[in-house]
Amino acid sequence: MKASFSKKEKLKSKKLIEQLFAEGKSVSAYPLRLIFMETAFIEDVKLKVGVSVSKRNFKKAVDRNRIKRLLRESYRLQKHLYFNNITTQYAFMILYIGNDKPIYKHLETKMKLLFEQFLIKVSKN
After folding, report:
1. CA dist., res. 121 & res. 57, Å (int)
2. Average per-residue pLDDT for the chain
3. Nearest to 70 by CA among 30, 31, 105
4. Cα separations (Å) of 22 from 12, 15, 16, 26, 89?
5. Number of structural domains found in the chain
6. SS3 category, 27
7. Is residue 2 part of a domain?
8. Does 124 reside within a domain?
């Protein structure tokens, strides 16, 4: 798995996003929450990922966009460490649920913790 975040890997399907929030399972590592669901894609990708930041907590679009950029970059750099060996396809939504603007290093450590919790939860099932 390359350290890139291509167009194929982005979660854009409105129907799939609604299904993810309705039926998906979640793990949390404050200030992040990962909602995931096992699914099947036409493309040959293992994961489709979306990121979201609450408009309630961050009124300015500039702040929301910066946090989303940090989340995508953190995911991009760490996905090959955690998801090279998975065989099933998943849809992910990474939510930032904190109230303060994050620092990248802090976000990076929380993302690692989040992915570890995801792998533990998936291996139990």
Report:
1. 28
2. 94
3. 105
4. 16, 11, 10, 11, 18
5. 1
6. strand
7. no
8. no
pLDDT at position 3 is 83
| 26 in any annotated domain | yes
Strands 47-53 and 89-96: parallel
User: In whole angstroms, what is the distance from residue 38 CA to residue 30 CA?
Assistant: 23
Domain that holds residue 87: 7-118
Bridge partners, residue 49, by sequence: 10, 92
Do strands 32-39 and 89-96 pair parallel, antiparallel, or not at all (unpaired)? antiparallel
Q: What's the predicted TM-score (pTM) here?
A: 0.93
Distance from C-alpha of 83 to C-alpha of 39, rounded to nearest angstrom: 15
**pLDDT greater at residue 4 or residue 64:** 64
> pLDDT tens, 36-58?
999 999 888 999 999 999 999 99
Mean predicted confidence (pLDDT) in 12-16: 95
Residue 125's pLDDT is 72
Within a domain: 94: yes
Mean pLDDT calculated for residue range 11-26 = 96
Helix axes 61-82, 104-124, angle to 10 degrees: 50
Place of tokens 């699914």: 39
| Sequence letter at residue 38 | E
